[in-house]
Amino acid sequence: MTDRQNPAVVDRGGRSAQAGGTIIEIQGLNKWYDKFHVLTDIDLKVSSGERIVICGPSGSGKSTLIRCINALEKVQQGRIVVDGIDLTAGAGNIDAVRQEVGMVFQQFNLFPHMTVLQNCMLAPMRSRKASKADAEALAMKYLTRVRIADQAHKYPSQLSGGQQQRVAIARALCMTPKIMLFDEPTSALDPEMVKEVLDTMIGLAEDGMTMLCVTHEMGFARSVADRVIFMADGKIIEQARPEEFFGNPQHEKTRAFLGQIL
Ligand code: ADP
Ligand code: MG
C-alpha cells in the first residue's frame, strides 16, 4: 500500500491519534425512527485520510449511521460536525456538508434516462454552477480514473453492475468530496464484478481519501482499513485495527458475527 498518509493509531477504545486532524466528530448521537431507538450513544471521531470499515449484522444501524453523516437522516440528539460544519446546528449547513461528502449506495442510483457522462455532469452544474465544458472535463477525468471513460455515452442499462457502480463512484467524485461514504457498494453485484469495484475503492484509499465503508468484504477491511468498527443493536460494540479486530475480537457478538461471515 502506497501513500498511507494518515496512519491513524487506534487503541482498543477506538480513539484515534488524529494524524490528519479530525474531519468527522460525532458526539452522543441518538436517533429514533418513531419510537424505535435505532442509534444509541454513538461517539465517533474520524481523522482526515482515515479509512474505516463498518460491519455488523443486518439491521444494526450501519446505513442509518452513515446516512446521518451526509444529513440524509434527521438526528434527535447529539452533535455531528463534518469538516468544521455543525450538521446539527441548522438546515443551512446541510447543503454545505453534502458538497463535501460523496455517497455510493448498494443500488447504484444512476439516473436511467441520462448517459454516463450526463449523470456525472449533473451535480457540478446544478450545485456548483460549473459550466458545461468544465463539468464535462471533470466528468471525463473521473470516468478515466475509474477506467470507464470509453462508456461515457452509454446509458446505465447498457452497462454491467460493476460498471454502473464505478460510474456511481465517478459521479460522487465529480463533486470533489473530502469524504466518501460507501454503503455496501458490492452487495448487489455478481461475484465476478466485486473485484473491479473494490479495486477502484482501493485506488481512492491509496490517494488518501477519507472513507467510511459499510461492507462485509473482510479482505478489503484487512488490507485497506485503518480501523474496523463493529455495530450491533444500534451501538458501536467494538473497534480496532484490522489485525486486532480479526485476530482477537473481544466481544461475544463480534465473535459470533465473524464466525458467520468468515
Ligand atoms: P443496517 O444498515 O445495519 O442493516 P439500518 O440502518 O438500515 O441497518 O436499519 C436499522 C434499523 O432501523 C432496522 O431495524 C431497520 O428496519 C430500521 N429502519 C431503517 N430505516 C428505517 C426507516 N426509514 N423507518 C423506520 N425504521 C427504519
Ligand atoms: Mg444497511
From TrEMBL:
SUPFAM superfamilies: P-loop containing nucleoside triphosphate hydrolases. Signal peptide: none annotated. Keywords: ATP-binding, Cell membrane, Membrane, Nucleotide-binding, Transport. InterPro entries: AAA+_ATPase, ABC_ATPase_HisP-typ, ABC_transporter-like_ATP-bd, ABC_transporter-like_CS, MetN_ABC_transporter-like, P-loop_NTPase. The keyword Methyltransferase does not apply. Residues 24-258 form the ABC transporter domain. One of its GO terms (molecular function) is ATP binding. Belongs to the ABC transporter superfamily. This is Amino acid ABC transporter ATP-binding protein.
